[in-house]
Amino acid sequence: SVAVTVMGSKNLPSGSHSVYWRAVDAAGNIAVAQQTVNIVPLVVFKANDVSVEGRRVRLAVNLTGNALVYPVTIPFSVGGDVDTSDYRILNQSVVIEEGRFGFINIDLLEDGLNESDEVLTINFASPTNAVLGNTSLHSLVIASGNVAPVVSLIAEQNAQSVTTIARTEGNVVIRANSFDANLNDVLSLDWTGTDARLLDLDSNDASITIDPSGLALGVYPVMVKVEDQLGASQSAALLMKLIDAAPVLSASVDSDGDGISDADEGWQDSDGDGIADYLDANSQPSTLSAIAGEAGYQMVTESGLSLQIGAVAANGLNNGALVDQLLIDATSPYDAFGHDEGHDNIGGMFDFIVSGAAVGSNVKVVIPQIEAIPANAIYRKLHPQNGWQTFVENSNNRVFSAAGSDGACPMTDSAEYTAGLTAGHWCVMLQLEDGGANDADGIANGIIVDPSGASILLAAPTVSIASVGAVTAGNSVNLSANIVDNGNTIASIQWQQTAGASVTINNPTSANASVSNIAQGSYSFKVTVTDALGRIAEASVSVTVNASPPPPSSGGGGGALMWLLLLGALFKVRKRLV
Q: Cβ(250)–Cβ(264) under 8 Å?
């Protein structure tokens, strides 16, 4: 037989790649062959949007990677319950001459009519030099009433967009970019969710300026809420990691394997996902590296939303959403809860934040697993106040899985996902409700926080009692529990007597107990073992205590017989003398 394997990564982005195959036969002979693999990018876009008459809507139409051949042309048609008096679109196709980004400008016209909401649809047709995903339709609601404002955050140091900041690189300016489709709305900004240690040096409500030189190293959360005069709102969040000094990047090293040197990419974070560009092979805001430096293992949410690493991930050096127990134990407030008692994480724990969602809406996030989903898997979450808990499923919160492959998963709109966690699948997709039971910030604010992962419930502990041999009254009975914890923490051990004359059990809360100076009779004892989840294992043993044997003779019986014999002898002697 001949074993054939791929040399290097099997998960490749779009573009042209040379793949090398290695074959080894039973005799150890080796052959290597090269194959050119051309991967065409997908076209992605936001599925839904909302605006009002008199506004221009710019619909981003992006590629998931670089095209093999340019230009990429994506034709479309307009539909819905609108007519040409409601909108103006100058082109009937999106043309991307280079790179990954294109746009459709949609002017929503004032028609002077008192109308209810209308829907304009963009129907995409087959593109050239790219392919559509499973969704080809964008729906734009032209609202007749108030539309909630939207907001995003960007931090800059030395005129670069950053999420990692350095003490030695000068002041950091964090700007809130807010927008309201309703022209006459008055917006207010609230920064109270921002770390109090970040002292604002400017007087502009739309920004804060900080001097990092005197701050302690660590991760600083920034949050802003924009609200209109009618109470409609949205929030945005950003995590900034403070380091001592900016890294020195090499022109001969390509840490993320994207073909661009570290020095050329720099330590800016152009997509705001918490991973510097030189470590981040993907610049799409809706994607996030689960494992740093891997072309695969890309988490994905819906186009138009943003993914970034969460507080636990930002506190480490992994430069991806994947976290481990050591990192959890080093990050407040999650450190208060320890490991997930009674459960064993299998596919990895992932810490991420979704931003840009409509307040109270549901979003979908795809998470590639580092191991295939095991049988009887349970999806577990770590809540900053409530600790470990099982993912709450309802109409707005659901767990799906798809077969996929190691490091590669279908997009969020794929029909390959089925409800539940199927053993052997490599891909998990979560549907999460903003402000719902699985949103760790607990607020419907357009931000969803979610440290979580697939686990199995450990088997309950078991217990048996070592047999008790023959016991004689007056001696001790030794009781020994053989406990198999199966990886669980044993919360308590309790011995008790269930039959026989009442006795005192020594060390009744330890695995090894005893009864001293026990009397003759029949007895029964039970041990109860409880784990940290409250699961109970029990075992019983019966003990028979025999009577003590008669005490050994002190010699009195033998002496009486000798006296009788002597008396008999004396009687005979006296009889002869007479």
A: no
Helix (H) or strand (E) holding 561: helix 556-577
CA distance 168 to 159: 14
Query: Which two tokens mark 524?
Result: 């029964």
Across 90-125, b (16+ Cβ under 10 Å) vs e yields: eeebbebeeebebebebebeeeeeeeeebebebebe
Instruction: Single out the residue of 269, 268, 264 nearest to residue 254, CA to CA.
Output: 264
What distance in Å separates the CA atoms of residue 42 and residue 44, rounded to the nearest whole number? 6
Q: Which residues of 548-559 are buried (b: 16+ CB within 10 A; e: fewer)?
A: eeeeeeeeeeee
| Alpha carbon 536 to chain centroid, angstroms | 29
Contact assessment for residue 193 and residue 124, using Cβ atoms and an 8 Å cutoff = no
Q: What are phi and psi of 326, to 5 degrees?
A: -60, -40
8 Å CB contact between 195 and 218: no
Count CB atoms within 10 A of the CB of residue 407. 20
Q: Enumerate the β-bridge partners of residue 482.
A: 464
Integer-rounded Cα Rg, in Å, for the chain is 37
Report long-range pairs for 118-122 (Cβ below 8 Å, ≥24 apart).
118/80, 118/81, 118/82, 118/86, 118/142, 119/80, 119/81, 119/82, 120/78, 120/79, 120/80, 120/82, 120/86, 120/87, 121/78, 121/79, 121/80, 122/59, 122/76, 122/77, 122/78
One-letter amino acid for residue 71 of the chain: P
The contacts of residue 491 (CB under 8 Å, 6+ apart) are 530, 531, 532, 534
Residue with the two structure tokens 């890294």: 247
H helix intervals, 32-131: none
Whats the size of the chain, residue-wise? Answer: 578
* Helical (H) or strand (E) element with 152: strand 150-157
**Six token digits for residue 489:** 């923490």
Q: What 3-state DSSP class applies to 251?
A: coil
| Token couple for 514 | 């005893």
Instruction: For residues 53 and 115, give the distance between their C-alpha atoms in angstroms, rounded to a whole number.
Output: 11
Whether the pLDDT of residue 530 is over 60: the answer is: yes
> What pLDDT is attached to residue 469?
86
Residue type, 519: A
The single-letter code of the amino acid at 240 is M
Q: What is the pLDDT of residues 192-251, one digit of tens each?
A: 999 999 999 999 999 999 999 999 999 999 999 999 999 999 999 999 999 999 999 999
- Cα-Cα-Cα-Cα torsion 170, 313, 12, 409, nearest 10 degrees, comes to -140
pLDDT of 578 reads 46
Residue type, 491: A
3-state SS assignment for residue 224:
strand
Q: What is the largest CA-CA distance in the chain?
A: 164
pLDDT beyond 70 at 84: yes
Position 561 pLDDT exceeds 80: no
Residue written as tokens 């009781």?
A: 479
327: helix, coil or strand? Answer: helix
pTM of the entire structure? 0.86
Q: What is the pLDDT of residues 325-381, one digit of tens each?
A: 999 999 999 999 999 999 999 999 999 999 999 999 999 999 999 999 999 999 999
